[in-house]
Amino acid sequence: MITDTTLAVLCNSLGTVLMALIFAYHFVVVNSKDNSKKSEKNHSELKGSVN
Asked: Which regions span the lipid bilayer (predicted)?
């Protein structure tokens, strides 16, 4: 049978790993380059400056 101490260590370890994965996911998403939105914005700015 699993003891209370072992269960607590397991839960704390899994929680720490989960939070690290969430942090890494958000770091990658925030720092990813989204070329489609930037190119649309640049295109509309260029089009507006020509007129």
From this structure: 6-28
pTM of the model: 0.59
What the block records as the tokens of 46 is 């260029």
DSSP-derived 3-state class of residue 34: coil
Place of tokens 């839960």: 11
Domain count, the chain: 1
Q: What residues make up the domain containing 39?
A: 4-50
